[in-house]
Amino acid sequence: MDYAELENAVKTILTQIGEDPSREGLLKTPTRVAKAYEAMTIGYKQDPARVLGDALFTDYGCSQMVLSRDIEFYSLCEHHLLPFFGVASVAYIPDGKVVGLSKLPRMIDVFARRLQIQERMTEQIADAMMETIKPKGAAVLISARHLCMEMRGVQKQGAVTTTSALRGIFLKDIRAREEFTSLAGMSLKDRF
């Protein structure tokens, strides 16, 4: 990341909206924004397969669903560069391997810390689980609020968007799908 170029771009934005980048309160804003964008887009420098693959273990007979739910995430909408945030629930049914539980939230952040749309992020998470863990199936449920909908445009505060991605047995077996949706069911309004 070229900090100087990004800082100059922020100065241009400040000037274009009618601000004075040399004003006391804005003097360090270009640097702060550059550092913030580096943190908010660190996912481009991370490999989900490496994150998950660093903690794969023989499952010793585990054949039931493994579910991590209510994993908070923060991302940036690629259309407006505004935040969207929410919770994700991810599940898989092992087929010889299990993954360290802390790796699932880290893998979610790999995709969330990129410019995103929620629909694609949901699919990417499911695909990464299938490709790396190689389970019998994977399922992802994400509920999020989008500031591009709340602060501008339709201005619908509190609106929640929910997306899901199902792979393997979760697509083929209605009981597995129902168990996932029952256990992963969440209400974002209760959280935010």
Description:
This protein has 192 residues and is of the alpha+beta class. It folds into 2 domains: 3-40, GTP Cyclohydrolase I, Chain A, domain 1; 49-191, GTP cyclohydrolase I, C-terminal domain/NADPH-dependent 7-cyano-7-deazaguanine reductase, N-terminal domain (GTP Cyclohydrolase I, domain 2, 2-Layer Sandwich), CATH 3.30.1130.10. 42% of the residues lie in helices and 26% in strands. The strands form 2 sheets. Strands 5-2-3-6-7 form a 5-stranded mixed β-sheet, with helices on both faces. Strands 1-4 form a two-stranded antiparallel sheet. The two termini are 33 Å apart.
Topology:
Blueprint: H1 3-16, H2 29-40, H3 48-53, E1 56-58, E2 66-77, E3 83-93, E4 97-99, H4 103-112, E5 115-116, H5 118-133, E6 137-146, H6 147-150, E7 161-168, H7 169-172, H8 174-184, H9 188-191
Parallel strand pairs: 2-5
Antiparallel strand pairs: 1-4, 2-3, 3-6, 6-7
